Amino acid sequence: MYSYILGLYVLVTSRVPLPVNTMLFGVATLSAYTLLAPHADAFADVGLILPVLCAVFGYVTVVGLNVPATVDRIARENGNVVGPRAFAAPFVLCAIAIFAPSLNWAQHAISLLLGATALVFACLTIAGSANAKSHVFGGRWDEAKRNAANWHVARLVALILGNELAASNGSPTTWVIAMCLGPIALHYLMYWTIIATHPYENMSGNDTGD
């Protein structure tokens, strides 16, 4: 009974990390789509897909704003100077997306990227604390880390299912909205679920958590 009360108290009082980059992507993408939607036919006439262009704009905005902090962090931690080639992969993906043959092709490509991310995270983190690459989840308790990692993978799977559902049954506008707002909602749902399912009863007396 005590563990349920403690779990409820922590759930109500815990502060979920603000998904700054996810929100920035949503704002940039939705703003671009709202402004350019009246000209969708003009973009289509030159072989460009407006929802994909807006998603690329949102992604480039996030990556571009994070480049200085990423370069500083790598230089601080490893003492290495990061060159432009280190950031080539995201922009190569954007270039490929811009010339996607169809919206459906781009939508399924996003699902494949999410699936690859989920698989890599599962292999590196759920395998055990010795292989864990993320210090965000789980604190010092191995069981808590596994629990948090499981829900993180569940969030990625939910993103894939949501993306496919919106792509199959919704209009391009519906897909853009789902792509922008879905990750924000699932971010909060994931953290609340991690907090609610945290194995408090298995904590030792000396562990106070991170």
What can you see in these coordinates?
By secondary structure, the chain is mainly alpha-helical. Helices cover 72% and strands 0% of the residues. It has eight helices and no strands. It has helices spanning 2-13, 20-36, 40-45, 50-78, 88-98, 103-126, 142-169, 172-196. Helix 2 (20-36) runs antiparallel to helix 4, helix 4 (50-78) packs antiparallel against helix 5 and helix 7 (142-169) packs antiparallel against helix 8 (172-196). The longest helix is centred in the N-terminal third of the chain and has 29 residues, at 50-78. The protein is globular, with a radius of gyration of 20 Å.
Could you estimate the helical fraction of the residues in percent? over 70%
Mean pLDDT rating: 80
Which geometry do the CA atoms define?
globular
Evaluate the radius of gyration: 20 Å
Which class best fits the helix and strand makeup? mainly alpha
Number of strands: 0
Number of helical segments?
8
Distance between the termini: 24 Å
Order of helices and strands: HHHHHHHH
* β-sheet strand percentage: under 5%
Biggest sheet descriptor: none
Q: Which segments are poorly predicted (pLDDT under 50) over 5 or more consecutive residues?
A: 131-139, 205-210
Question: What characteristics describe this protein?
Answer:
8 helices; mainly alpha; disordered C terminus; 210 residues
Helix/strand layout:
Elements: H1 2-13, H2 20-36, H3 40-45, H4 50-78, H5 88-98, H6 103-126, H7 142-169, H8 172-196
Helix pairs in contact: 2-4, 2-8, 4-5, 6-7, 7-8
